[in-house]
Design brief:
Helices cover about 15% and strands about 5% of the residues. The longest helix is centred in the N-terminal third of the chain and has 15 residues. It has 7 helices and 7 strands. The strands form 3 sheets. It has a 3-stranded antiparallel beta sheet. It has 2 domains: about 200 residues, no CATH class; about 100 residues, no CATH class. The protein is globular and about 60 Å long. The chain has about 325 residues and is mainly alpha-helical. It binds heme C (HEC) (5 copies).
Length: about 325
Amino acid sequence: MKIFLHSSSYRSGFALVATAVCATLTSSHLAQATAFTNTGSIANTRHNMTQSTAGVGISNTMDLARNDYGEVCVYCHTPHGSSAAIVAPLWNRTTKATSYTLYSSNTLTQTVAQPGGSSLACLSCHDGQTAIDSIINMPGSGGYNANQATTQNTAFLNTWNNPVGRVDTIGHQGLNSRNNIQGDGMGSQGCLVCHSDTGALGGATDFTVFLIGTDLRNDHPVGVTFPTTNGPGTGFNTPAATAGTARFFDVNGNSRMDKGEVRVYGPGAGGAAAAASATVECASCHDPHGVPSAGVGSTFNKTFLRMSNSGSALCLTCHIK
Ligand code: HEC
Ligand code: HEC
Ligand code: HEC
Ligand code: HEC
Ligand code: HEC
């Protein structure tokens, strides 16, 4: 808890919000309820790392834990000077070289290998190894550090000043509970110190289940080849349409890989085993920007899914079961 005692404004900010949520905490905790509207834009989702539209006080509450760059896209993309470390569009995040523990089972018919760019992008936050605000190119001129593509440099991240009147970030936190990734001697708490039942401060929405980690054995396989012909015992539908080296289920038949359409990825964005057969990656099932559930302006599908999984429709897009 000591890390948070450095700033009384931070403490009172937390107390303010905590009071507001306290009454509903025990029930809302597990429901993963959100203050965001989940409509219109990624700005209105949990993927807005400024946390600024979630309501008065919430953004400030996160100030000691992550730089508030005052922009939504910049935590993931930059228009110039993007990363060559992974295949992901105009990627602005630190992606540490990592060997993931892969899913395995006796019944698999396909090859599972290290995840491709369309998973590594997500894992750059969701494996818990890297600070949420660890980017290559900060807003404004200057504020660029090419080494950030693979290495988190705390001194560089400290050059950012949060909005006037707010405290600056002293611990650049990741989606973990106890790993000391910020390397600044400020203690070892990650975002889960507040966002979990067991965290020292606890009390905020429990994000424990969102921490995928580096052990992928308990997750739907990624970096797994998609069968070009149906494997023994297990049937698969065929994503017949192509976009470059990716293949997709062209539900609306317009020959474009639309955000609501499930896809598999070719080499690069796809995993190490992707060649003739593309691979399933995180972004096969999820779109990190949100996908309207019923046309423009409607609420996004839950958990950033490309399509609703009501009746297991997502699973049955690929699997014939
Ligand atoms: C000092 C405690 C604390 C820390 C540390 C903290 N948060 Fe929060 N966070 C809160 C509180 C309190 C709220 C508002 C109540 C809620 O939504 O759980 C909140 C809200 C949020 C929300 C909005 C939740 C929603 O959908 O309504 C997100 C997203 C979030 N925090 C992300 C983070 C991230 C990422 C980190 C680490 C970089 C972090 N938080 C660190 C206390 C904290
Ligand atoms: C939390 C991280 C994150 C944020 C924030 C984010 N993106 Fe993305 N974006 C991604 C990822 C990951 C992909 C690649 C998806 C894939 O592999 O298919 C992507 C892909 C894209 C693409 C390529 C086409 C597509 O949809 O796949 C565009 C364009 C794009 N983003 C624009 C934006 C803009 C504009 C913003 C801000 C309003 C933004 N993104 C915010 C993670 C993010
Ligand atoms: C910049 C860091 C970052 C990146 C990159 C990122 N996420 Fe997240 N994601 C978060 C944070 C922060 C939350 C809020 C909850 C938490 O802190 O775990 C979240 C929440 C989620 C949730 C839960 C949403 C909900 O409403 O319950 C899903 C699903 C998710 N992310 C999937 C993905 C996928 C898939 C990708 C890649 C295509 C991705 N994320 C990339 C930071 C990130
Ligand atoms: C085969 C499809 C598929 C793939 C691939 C996939 N997910 Fe998911 N993911 C889902 C579905 C479906 C849910 C909703 C589960 C639920 O409602 O409990 C989900 C939920 C989540 C959540 C919210 C936690 C939860 O269980 O509610 C996060 C975070 C997440 N996924 C991240 C990722 C990341 C990161 C990857 C890549 C390593 C990934 N997903 C790969 C289908 C997938
Ligand atoms: C983008 C296509 C795709 C989607 C969507 C998808 N899967 Fe899969 N899934 C695969 C592939 C490919 C494999 C590897 C199968 C193999 O090796 O035989 C797999 C593997 C699995 C396995 C492990 C099989 C084993 O033998 O160990 C399970 C279980 C599974 N999927 C369940 C689901 C569920 C449940 C959903 C919906 C939440 C889902 N899948 C969505 C493509 C998909």
